[in-house]
Design goal:
With 212 residues, the protein is mainly beta. It is built from no helices and 17 strands. The chain has two domains: 3-93 and 174-204, Immunoglobulin-like (Sandwich); 96-169, no CATH class. Helix content is 0%, strand content 66%.
Length: 212
């Protein structure tokens, strides 16, 4: 019976300049993986300018750390974890995501209209905050707005009342390496250990200034 090590991969990109921000590899398992090695190949075009909690022991065509897992109790079960964050620079090839419209327009009576037109080769969700959304029947709701794309497309307009002068937008999706390669592997592990991964992409949209 294979023993699983869960891997969460995250790449964060700033769409204002189509530049890399950081990438994260986080391991969780009921197995003590101390002594194994974590190997990372950053996304193409990314330059590593910082590493937390430490720089790798090897840094050439790939980066490699000797794992020192920390023990914790989660839902009454012992878990072992290890993670690395790399601060990145470099321009991203924008081919996998199209930002056709992302703007606000004055709507009168202290209201603004958010206009968005986003497309990708994968499903994603758009998160907008903080805003106060007005409904015809239900009054208003302040907080975070989440919208899901259909077949990789998300278009629309939403009237809202600004809570702050700045509205932030984020696109999040779970993708595969064929969209944006970010290769993470375990080395010097026992044969029955398998890596089960999830790969999350975070795209930070340009901040919108709400001035009437």
């Amino acid at each position: 019976m294979p023993r699983k090590v869960e891997l969460l991969k995250i790449v964060e990109i700033d769409l204002d300049r189509w530049g890399f921000k950081n990438c994260i590899a986080y391991l969780t398992s009921s197995i003590d993986i101390t002594g194994c090695k974590l190997r990372i190949v950053p996304p193409p075009g990314a330059r590593v300018v910082g590493a937390f909690p430490s720089w790798p022991e090897y840094m050439e065509e790939f980066l490699e750390w000797k794992i020192k897992a920390y023990r914790r109790i989660f839902e009454e079960e012992v878990k072992y974890s290890f993670g690395v964050r790399l601060d990145l620079e470099g321009r991203v090839d924008p081919g996998f995501f199209i930002l056709s419209a992302w703007m606000v327009k004055p709507q009168g009576d202290e209201l603004m209209k958010l206009v968005f037109d986003l497309a990708a080769s994968f499903d994603f969700k758009l998160i907008v905050s903080p805003i106060q959304i007005h409904y015809n029947l239900d009054g208003s709701k302040t907080g975070i707005l989440e919208l899901s794309a259909r077949k990789g497309v998300l278009q629309g307009e939403i009237v809202f009342k600004p809570v702050t002068p700045i509205v932030a937008g984020t696109v999040e999706a779970y993708i595969k390496d064929d969209i944006l390669p970010f290769v993470v592997s375990l080395r010097e592990v026992e044969e029955d250990i398998v890596l089960v991964e999830k790969y999350r992409l975070v795209l930070r949209l340009p901040d919108l200034v709400c001035l009437g």
